[in-house]
Amino acid sequence: MDRISPLDPADPIFKRILLKLSGEALMGELDFGTDPARVKAVAQAVKAVSDRGVEIAIVVGGGNIYRGMKAAASGMDRATGDYMGMLATVLNALPLQDALEQLGCRVRVQSALTIAEVAEPYIRRRAMRHLEKGRIVIFAAGTGNPFFTTDTAAALRAVEVKAEAILMAKNGVEGVYTADPRTDPAAELLHEISHTDAIQRGLKVMDATALTLCRENGTPIHVFNMDDERNIDRIVSGERVGTLVSTHE
Fold it and tell me: Residue 120, SS3?
């Protein structure tokens, strides 16, 4: 089903989406941590789409605070590092929740790790009920398992809550390229590609596990530049922004 050319561009083409935010998307110009101004800007963009009646789930990463794989490379047990990374995503979910609530949004944080004092446990049916009631749901702590990335968590949660599309926010790049545009000046932006082609070519969309899960469930991925927060609304309005990864060959 082609959702890129709606009959009325003013109407949202999706009823339910999952937005994947990296930890770096909340970092702004800082070297690490969260930039309050950046978090507020992201929250305003999310609210604008929510106000249009679109149900929004968010998976947030933790790379701005901690990267488990780097710690593992320096000698720490990989599983321990990954659990620390999961906790970092909770530290990102809470300020995002606060920023959204200050704008008047109703928000729930659900954690794959049990942290009852600050977040609900992840329960699929409860999450779907929140979305149906117009609440924004932030999924924290990845999948709750080491050795899986937040990309995989985004793909898994999108399939579980029946999101119509994943909006994959990137930092400093417009979408998916034939090579890394930061190091290869000949890299070309791909406006559309299939899940299978992305996997076979090893393109940096998501990790292979996440891409395979999206392919098997026919979940389209819109990869876009988060430097312009308005891109979220543009995609929801049906504009072609960045790269569309779909099941179409």
Answer: strand
In the block, which residue shows the tokens 């090579």?
179
Residue 205 near residue 170 (C-beta atoms within 8 A)? no
Find the angle CA(240)-CA(246)-CA(249) to the nearest 5 degrees. 110
Assigned domain for 4 exists: no
Asked whether residue 7 is domain-assigned, the answer is no
Structural contact between residues 148 and 209, judged by C-beta atoms closer than 8 angstroms: yes
Is residue 6 situated within a structural domain?
A: no
| 129 secondary structure, DSSP code | H
- Count up the domains in the chain and report the number: 1
pLDDT mean over 100-116: 97
Q: Give the span between the Cα atoms of 82 and 147, in whole angstroms.
A: 7
Domain that includes residue 71, residue range: 16-246
Distance (Å, whole) CA 120 – CA 223: 29
Query: pLDDT of 178-191, one tens digit each?
Result: 888 888 888 899 99
What is the percent of the chain with per-residue pLDDT over 70, rounded to a whole number?
Answer: 92
Largest CA distance in the chain: 55
Which two three-digit tokens encode residue 131? 């979305």
Q: Indicate which CATH number applies to the domain containing 182.
A: 3.40.1160.10
In order of 15, 98, 114, the CA distances from 79 in angstroms are 36, 30, 17
The three-class DSSP label of residue 36 is helix
Other CB atoms closer than 10 Å to residue 218's CB: what's the count?
Answer: 11
Average pLDDT over residues 37-53: 96
| pTM of structure | 0.91
Per-residue pLDDT of 196-223, as tens digits, reads: 999 999 888 899 999 999 999 999 999 9
pLDDT at 153: 98
